[in-house]
Amino acid sequence: MNYLLNIVYGLLLVALFPWLLYRAIIKKKNRRGWWTKLTGRVPCRQSDSPCIWLHAVSVGEVNLLRPVIARLSRELPGYEFAVSTTTETGYDLARKIFGEHTVFFCPFDFSWAIRNVLHRLRPSLLVLAELELWPNLISLTRRQGIPVSLVNGRISQGSFENYARFKWFWKPVLRQLSVLGVQNPEYQRRLTELGVAQQKIQLTGSVKFDGANTDPGNRQTTELRQLAGLRHEDVVFLAGSTQAEEDQMAAKVYLRLRESCHNLRLVLVPRHVERSAKLKKDLLAVGLKAQLRSELASQPGARVFDQSDVLIVDVIGELSGWWGVADVAFVGGTMGTRGGQNMIEPAAYGVPVCFGPNTWNFQDVVHLLLDQHAAQVVCTSDELFEFVQASIEQPQLAQQMGLRGRQLVLQQRGAVDRTVAMLVEILPPEPPQEAVSTSGQTAAA
């Protein structure tokens, strides 16, 4: 099966090569990591210490691993950690957050590449974030006696239907997982229907609740507020993780409100920072002068909104801090086909939150927020305008919504404790020191 998959992957890679070349040359995406992805020649561990390999696809998964790795480091002081990612933005953020650990691009699911990674890392455990299933990765890891775990597992209705169509293929893959930590009972039910043994699934909750900061006075938020020169009387409308059309919606809302609210400030955090330069030009075309966050470091002490109408955050990994400066928030990726972005972070700060109707990637979180009247769905630009206007003109109601959101986040915490306990339980016993040393010499050779 491994070699058959190699052939399928090879044919797909050849078929997609023109598109990949276009993205690399024209779009300037996916330019790095190709050698590692094709060969699996990741940095070779020299230490004899046991190691846990954690895989996160992109920025969201990297962020959710932060509290997990922090807790594992405390629980397992003798362990090393290796973090792999798929995307360039995820890799950059992982290098920033986990700089003291091994960070690398995860190889394609070719058997030789996976074997190289396993040989060089010598992991004691492989941890996959959310639902990242690669047949060769899982089967070859398990073949070496290494347990494979899923953490913060989720499976949307659409994904479930797709997996169910090919259940004959995915059932044996899923059954090789040692343990699966899932976010809610619905995901648990779907995985059981796909053939996962009930005793392998643990209801851990969502790690994203644990990782969310609830203190707007935290160091990062305070520094960002000072960097932008924001004052206490400023009212910050922040649209985060946005797509292009959502940036335009937020800009229109700002244009309609700035005459009646002179201290209104607009901060845009696009989901893909490479759009920032074009976004700045597009805003200028509608009469709004924008400032890029990356330029602020060269202008210490400058007050952005004395010179500009909009601040565009074009730095990866800062959104969680920026949510803390907001007085009203719109979560992007919810008006188009992306399926939503993380709305837990702004809610955790006690900020009144709204988002579009397309949130299937965060269905459980959305239901919790809406049931507690801690967020609002907006379907059009006019509805977004009405939400922001009401938050400004009725601050007490906005504050009550924010407090309900923050309280909800606090009530949902505990997933990190349950996840780490689950992982520690399946760790294989450490081999005797002499055997470890011999293994390390062999791998290094």
Short descriptors:
seven-stranded parallel beta sheet; alpha/beta; 2 domains; 445 residues; disordered C terminus; 21 helices; 14 strands; Rossmann fold
Structure write-up:
It is a single chain. This protein is an alpha/beta fold and 445 residues long. The protein has 2 domains: 32-205 and 414-437, 3-Deoxy-D-manno-octulosonic-acid transferase, N-terminal domain (Rossmann fold, 3-Layer(aba) Sandwich); 219-411, Glycogen Phosphorylase B (Rossmann fold). The chain has helices spanning 2-25, 34-39, 59-75, 88-97, 111-121, 135-143, 157-165, 167-175, 185-193, 207-211, 219-228, 244-257, 276-285, 304-307, 319-322, 344-348, 363-371, 381-393, 395-411, 415-426, 433-444, and strands at residues 51-56, 80-85, 102-105, 125-129, 148-153, 179-182, 201-203, 235-242, 264-270, 290-292, 310-312, 328-331, 353-355, 376-377. A 7-stranded parallel beta sheet has the order 3-2-1-4-5-6-7, sandwiched between helices. The chain has a 7-stranded parallel beta sheet with strand order 10-11-9-8-12-13-14. The radius of gyration is 23 Å and the shape is globular. The chain starts with a helix and ends with a helix. The model is unreliable at 432-445 (pLDDT under 50).
